Amino acid sequence: MHRFANPARFLRLAAVILPWTTGAALILFGVGLYLALFASPPDYQQGDTVRIMYVHVPAAWMSMFTYSSMAVAAACALVWRHPLAEVYARAAAPIGAGFTLLCLVTGSLWGEPMWGTWWVWDARLTSVLILFFLYLGYMALANAFDDPVRGNRAGCILLLAGAVNVPIIKFSVDWWNTLHQPASVLRMGGPTIHGDMLWPLLIMALAFQTYFMAVVILRMRAELADRKIQTLRMARAASGSA
Amino acid sequence: MMTRKKRRLYMLGLAMLGLGTATALTLSAFEENVAYFFSPSDLAAKPPGDKRIRVGGLVQDGSVTRPDDVTTNFTITDGAQSVAVTFSGALPDLFREGQGVLAEGRMRPDGVFQAAEILAKHDENYMPKEVVDALKKAGEFRPEPPGKPVYGGAGS
């Protein structure tokens, strides 16, 4: 892993990967949205409202994936002092928060016509709202210190403490009675979603994943450039006063 | 002799283990409160008295009657137990016989559940209409009652 710890090596690798992930995201979103919004069949109960699911479910998956990856990065930063791990966590946080917000909003828009309510305080909805606040809390905490080293360390500890929420989100629908339906794809006994709807969903999930990779690479590059500028400024100030 | 990296790793592992255990214990202690609704079996096993509660299950086939323009009477069942429900107001679009439903309200002394609010409960099945029609024709379409009894009554 320390092979990739070198920012210069990361930047070279990123330059190779970025065009591919960007192109893949564009194509997958084009195909996925066409299948989801036009080519897939309406649901026997929900009718066309089911199409919200093709955005809601990938956003929910990505909200959990992004947080889990940030928690792993936080562990790498705290234990091994991996220099890129903090950069990754900082870069991924606003994207993950965006996915979580998208998940909450689309869920609400689906819930009103289907359940008959915008929001309930059941275990699934509440734990996802907590995830959203964890993202916001991390971003606030990591930037709350004058010394970026202390801010990043405090942020990493919050990320790891909040990681207990991820399995709670995933299994809330199995452990407790919730208004939210149980899992339809990642469950024991195979998917309970018909193939004509499953394929568009998986393509949309890949589209979200490649979009995330492209944006996180861009944001990590910006973060590294920002750090370089800070270092140069400090060096100039030091030489100016000497 | 432990390296600093190893010590940090063990400390992190211990802290996560402690936090995970504490969370698991807290959540299992509050299981009754975390459950969003009870099943009809729970109501039979532990009568709720005058408390405002939510009960969830399937709308029993053929149980829906409308005595007047605003009132709907129906039965919620979990397969083992059932409860009669009466409700005045607008029903959600997904309310239909044989499908999941949640009723929030109070048990009346005469044993009928007076609902103040009705929510539709969607299950995990997503299918086009033709597939469901084919399943129904083959007699293979059997929606499961949502949730499970909180007090470990029938069915668990």
Q: Give the fraction of residues assigned to helices of chain B.
A: 25-40%
Runs of chain B with pLDDT <50, length 5+? none
Distance between the termini of chain A: 39 Å
Counting H and I runs of at least 4 residues, what is the number of helices of chain A? Answer: 7
End-to-end distance of chain B, in Å?
51 Å
Q: Give the C-alpha Rg of chain B.
A: 22 Å
Q: SSE order of chain A in H/E notation?
A: HHHHHHH
CATH fold category name of the largest domain in chain B: OB fold (Dihydrolipoamide Acetyltransferase, E2P)
The overall pLDDT of chain B, averaged over residues, is 88
Integer average pLDDT of chain A: 93
Structural class, from secondary structure content of chain A? mainly alpha
What CATH calls the topology of chain A is Four Helix Bundle (Hemerythrin (Met), subunit A)
What is the level 1 CATH name of chain A? Mainly Alpha
Number of helices of chain B: 4
Based on helices, strands and strand pairing, what is the structural class of chain B? alpha+beta
Q: What's the total number of strands of chain A?
A: 0
The domain tally of chain A reads 1
Can you tag this structure with a few keywords?
heterodimer, A: 242 residues, mainly alpha, Four Helix Bundle (Hemerythrin (Met), subunit A), 77% helix, 0% strand, B: 156 residues, alpha+beta, OB fold (Dihydrolipoamide Acetyltransferase, E2P), 2 domains, 24% strand
Protein architecture, described:
The complex is a heterodimer of chains A (242) and B (156). By secondary structure, chain A is an all-alpha fold. Chain A has helices at 7-39, 53-80, 83-114, 123-142, 148-162, 165-175, 195-241. In chain A, helix 2 runs antiparallel to helix 3 (83-114) and helix 3 runs antiparallel to helix 7. Chain A is globular. The mean pLDDT of chain A is 93. Chain B is an alpha+beta fold and 156 residues long. Chain B starts with a helix and ends in a 19-residue tail after the last helix. Classes of the chains: A mainly alpha (242), B alpha+beta (156). The interface between A and B is large, with 41 and 43 residues.
